Each structure stands twice: as C-alpha cells, then as structure tokens.
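Model: You mentioned two targets. I'll fold them one after the other.
Researcher: Yes, keep them separate.
Model: Target one:
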Amino acid sequence: MLPARSRLTGGDEFASVIRRGRRSGRPRMVVHLQIMGDTDATPRAGLVVSRAVGGAVVRHRVSRRLRHLLAPRLASLPAGACVVVRALPPAAEATSAELAVDLDAGLRGALRKLPGARRPDGVQR
C-alpha cells in the first residue's frame, strides 16, 4: 500500500496529470508524469484500472500488483513528481515481472520527455 502522503486523491489531480503531464505508452499500461509546482513535495502516484481490464477481482489484482511495484520506485522520481499509471486490458493476463518491465520503461520514457531532461547523447533539451 502507498502511504497517504504518496497518493493522488482528487479527480482534479488525476485529470491535471493526464492532460498536462508527459505520457509514455507501453503494451500493458500508459504512464503519465508531471512535475507539480511544489518541488519540495514527495512524489505522489495514482492508478487508473478501468472495467476494460476485467471484472472486479481482476481489476483489484492488477491494482495490487501495480501499487506494490510503484511504491519503491517513487523514491527515484524527482521531488514534486505526480504519476498516474493507467492499466490497459493486456495487464489482466500479465505477470508481475512483465508489469515491472513495462512500468520501468514507462517511467523512463516519461522522465525523458520532461522539459530539461537530458537526452541519451548528453544534450539538454
């Protein structure tokens, strides 16, 4: 479980990250990342697992796996970062290892797209 201070709670927060944040799509999920104005704040995260993923049991299983994978990765994010992980239907059949690979790749991709991020060749955007 994510600590209370590490969770996105309001619908407006989710909407802001999804609309204004950088997006990185993977086969089983889409990762949205936005750096909020408060750079002293701890990184926060939220999950979106819709009915398209499956029934209630399947959605809760996917949510539990993603929460478990996301919690330790929050420490590596910049201060003030807000992340929304949106699960896609293939996440229902994925193993935790497959979800971890997609989550890591999605976070890397979204971080790379942030303004001021360094490209692999060392040139700053």
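Model: Target two:
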Amino acid sequence: MWETVVGKMTSVLDVQFSHMNSATHLLMVKDYVTLLGSTLRQYGYEIGPLLDVLDNSHGDKKDTDYENVVLAFSLQTSDIMPAFLYVAPFSSMVPEVCRIVRSFIKVSVDYLSYIRTDYFDVVRKYLDKFLIEVVNETLLDTINSGNISVSQAMQIAANIVVLERACDFFIRHAAQQCHIAVRSVEKPQASLTAKVLLNTSSDVAYITLLSLVNNKIDEYMTLTESVNWTSEETKQNGNDYMNGMIFYLDSLMSTVQQILPLDAMYKVGTGALEHISNTFVAVFLSGSIKRFNANAIISINSDLKMLENFADDRFYSSGFGEIYKEGFKSCLTEARQLINLLSSSQPENFKNPVIREKNYYALYYKKVASICEKIQGFSRWYLWEPFE
C-alpha cells in the first residue's frame, strides 16, 4: 500500500514542480514534504523516493529567462555563462523590483529633464528615497509581519543579498539615462544609502530566519515527551526524535546551500546547533524533569553523538573546513561537557579549577548544582557542595 501511495505522491510532485515559477512556492512545498517524510521515517516507512523527487526539483530557467531576469539587471556573479537549464538563487520578486525601479528612474529622468539641465544628483536622491521608503520598508514589513515561514524567510534573505548588489546597477542605469559617464558614479562616495540599509534589512531577515528555524527545532526537541528519564533499561541507540531532528537539519542546510551565500549557511548552521545545545541543558534544568538516572544520561549521550557526527559531516562536506576555525560541532560544547560530567566516574573533579577550565569551561556551576540535585540513585553527587 505504501509503495502505491509514494508512487502517486512522487508523480504528483514531479508535475507540480515542473509548473512552479516561484521559488517561494517551491520551497514551501519542499518544507511540507520534508516534514511529512520526517514523520513517516520515524514509523519505519521508506521515504527514499520522496527525497529523490526533492533533490531533482529545481526552479529551472531557460536562456531567454536568464537574459530577462539576470543579464538585464547585471545580477550575475560571474562572467561565465551557466549551463542551462539555470537555477537562480532569487525568486521572481527580484527582477520584478528591478523592472519597477528601472521604470521609476526613467520617469524621474523624463520629468526632471524638462525643468533643469543638471539633474543627475536629483535623480539619485529620488532613487535613494524610493529604495529606502518603498522597497526597503516593504521588505521589513514583510519580514516583521509574523506570517512568513522558514522557507519564505530564507528566500527573502537571499533576495535582499541580490537586491543589495543590484543597487550598483540602479545607479549606473540612472547615470546612463542622465547621459553621465558611468565611471564617474562608480566611486565610493557615489554609492546609494539604500544599499547600506538593505544590508541592515538582510541582518533582520537572518535574525527572523534563525528565530523561525529555532521554533521548528523546538517542535522536534520534545525531550520531556520522548525520553524515559527514569528508565530501568539502557538504550544505546538513542531516541526517535533525533532522527527527525537530523533529517530536518539536513534538509534545511541543503536548501540554504542552494540559495544563500556560504557565510549565511554557516550562520544558520551555527545558530541552529547552538539552540539545540541550549535546549539540552534547559531540559535538564526544567521543572518538568524532577528526577533522572544513569540510563537516561546514556540515552541522551547517544542522541548527542548522532548530532555531533552530523555536525562534523555537514561542516566538512560543505567546504567550511578551509574557511572557519570553529566547526559546527563546537556549537554543541555546553551540552557535550554537561553529558561528560554526568557520565563521569569522578564528578567531584568539577570543583578542581584546573580540570574545570580544561574539561568543563562551558558549564556554569549554579546550573550544574541544580541538575545534580535531580540525579536518581547517585549519592556521590551530594558529597560536594556547590560553589559560593
């Protein structure tokens, strides 16, 4: 029955993806399919065909589309023509905005050319004002609306990066329309204020994206529901929630890699893993966990190892090893040090300043003391007093 269902699903998705012109819609559908696949995977269903249809779906553009939406507005990042079918990192919003701005420049030039001769500086001011008060404000309103998904926030962030680059095209185009030498407007002092503000909006988009990603992570990190904290059996293979968590992170990072710059991908990866690390520690501290035993620690340790392996694999396979000193795995340091301490045969070493600085530097003693009070059946934890 499942083979029949998944066959129909992949067939429908293939057709739908082939008719999609909006990257935002494409990413939204991928989001839903990823969530469905993650859920089914936890129940043992084979979801390989679903993953394949996601990997094979792209917002393909023909050479004529490339000329209309990339070359026409100098949005390419390389002089080398890509192989077609071409996949743009931005959605249709970018060329549409570029067309509107180009039209605005033409109307401004047409109007000012009738009333004065030296009108380039005025056109530039009009252009700056339009980009700041209309384009940038609209982007911020959309970002702050509270009605966007992870995929939409990701696409907006990617679009802003391209629009920021397009500001150079806008000012060159304005110069050409005003019959001004282009080289005279390529000086730093001739740049647009809007370009700086778009960069700020990009930061806001990333903050929103990370917040939405963290909310999604919280849906998976159901530790209080998924983990038996006083189990009498040792569970060496981890818990089911972590399979879903890693599946989501893998899908997220793959999508980010397609449309955002490398530094943005690093920012998303570190932000997500730091949030997971904080969640591990917060759960141990939460009032909903009254007691836990050694078996629970072993179980959580297995979960954390799975996550650390994923973090290392993704960091090096993405080429970050040659760029950044701090790997993704380092974002999990606090959680790792806490589990190491709880698994230690000599937990009292935490009070030794030298050992603590070497092995437990990310841990705060008051948090450790609160967590240790919850350990079931380990009287040695009560043999040492917390720090003053």
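Researcher: Noted. Anything on target two?
Model: The two ends are 63 Å apart (CA to CA).
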